[in-house]
Structures are given as C-alpha cells and as structure tokens.
C-alpha cells in the first residue's frame, strides 16, 4: 500500500463541477463554502487514512490536519480535470507518509528498549551496516508477533505510550500489559536471527 490510487476516492454526493464551484467560493474567502467541502470530503479522507494507518485515533488527527493544510493552501489549487477530492487525498497521503516515517524512526531509536541486540565488535561503516541490519530484522520480527503482542509493542515503543496508557488502549489492567510486554520481548528474542542475538557468534 504505497499509493493513494490503491484506495479509489469514492464519488462525492454532488458532481465535481459543483465541488469546484465551492473551491472558487472558498478561494474568494467564503468559509461556509470550505465548510461544505469539509462536510463532503471528510469521510473520504478519514476512510483513506484509516485504511492506510489502521488506527482510528490517528486517522482522526490526520484528517483534521489534512483540512487545516487544505485551508491554508486553498488559494493555490487549480482545476486539473478531476474531482477536488483527489487533492484532499493527496494531502492526506503525504501526512500518512510523514507519520509512518516518524513512527519508524521512533521505533528504531528505541530498539534497545525492546530487545538487547549484540553490540558491534568493530567501528566504522561495517558497524553501521550491522546496526541497520539489526533494526530491519527487529522490525520484521515485530510483524511476526501475535496481534496482542504486536499491539502492545507498537503502543509501548512506537507510539511511546506508558504502561497505564497502553492498558487503557488495550482495555487491560497494567499487570496484564506488563506480562504481555514481557512475553512479546521474549518472543522477539527467539525470532531474531542468531547472528543478531546477544548470545550470537563472537
């Protein structure tokens, strides 16, 4: 899922020409016209982001940001022979990509908090390649966890939530989350390739 085209933009309730009339009105300063555009396309954008992110809370935040950015840029958009909904989805897609990159960075930067990896025995380019390979291997292993374990690890280390916050999100008590996290980390240690484990080859 790397392109907005993978999730077709649903047809709006009214024809595209009517939507562009609202765009022109919004460009002239008619905020009510922009409000109608929001009402018409908010659900399209939200469903697209949920499809890409899989999290309704994040989708709500990014949908809001999509229309904030759209309002700022409404004066720059010009008719290109397609429905204005495609423009809104393009903004949403860019926000999703930024969010994914940011989330991946946060996960990679907290790798050592999830599972201890063998420290490189050399310095320089070789060690950098090894560290990158370790992170990639870890990300692949996270995808192999069962749904509960994956959600726990994602919330704790990707979204940087506390145990209490994770418990609330998962509708569990804190003790259950700690136990689930422990099992998930233990499972990750088992899944990691031998060469990347703390007791790997020396």
From TrEMBL:
Keyword Transcription regulation appears in the UniProt entry: yes
UniProt keywords, alphabetically: Sigma factor, Transcription, Transcription regulation
Domain RNA polymerase sigma-70 region intervals: 37-103
GO BP: any one term: DNA-templated transcription initiation
Pfam annotation, one family: Sigma70_r2
GO molecular function, one term: DNA binding
Signal sequence range: none
Domain RNA polymerase sigma factor 70 region 4 type intervals: 136-188
Family the UniProt entry places it in: Belongs to the sigma-70 factor family. ECF subfamily.
NCBIfam families in alphabetical order: sigma70-ECF
UniProt name for this protein: RNA polymerase, sigma-24 subunit, ECF subfamily
């Amino acid at each position: 899922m790397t392109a907005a085209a993978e999730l077709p933009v649903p047809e709006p309730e009214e024809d595209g020409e009517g939507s562009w009339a609202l765009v022109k009105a919004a460009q002239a300063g008619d905020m009510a016209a922009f409000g109608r555009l929001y009402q018409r396309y908010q659900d399209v954008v939200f469903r697209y982001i949920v499809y890409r992110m899989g999290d309704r809370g994040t989708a709500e935040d990014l949908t809001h940001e999509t229309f904030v950015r759209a309002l700022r840029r409404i004066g720059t958009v010009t008719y290109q022979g397609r429905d204005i909904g495609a423009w809104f989805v393009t903004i949403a897609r860019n926000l999703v990509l930024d969010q994914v990159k940011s989330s991946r960075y946060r996960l990679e930067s907290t790798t050592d908090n999830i599972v201890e990896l063998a420290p490189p025995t050399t310095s320089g380019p070789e060690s950098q390649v090894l560290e990158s390979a370790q992170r990639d291997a870890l990300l692949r292993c996270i995808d192999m966890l069962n749904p509960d374990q994956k959600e726990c690890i994602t919330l704790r280390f990707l979204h940087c939530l506390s145990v209490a916050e994770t418990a609330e999100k998962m509708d569990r008590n804190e003790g259950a989350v700690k136990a689930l996290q422990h099992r998930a980390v233990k499972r990750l240690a088992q899944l990691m390739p031998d060469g990347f484990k703390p007791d790997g080859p020396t």
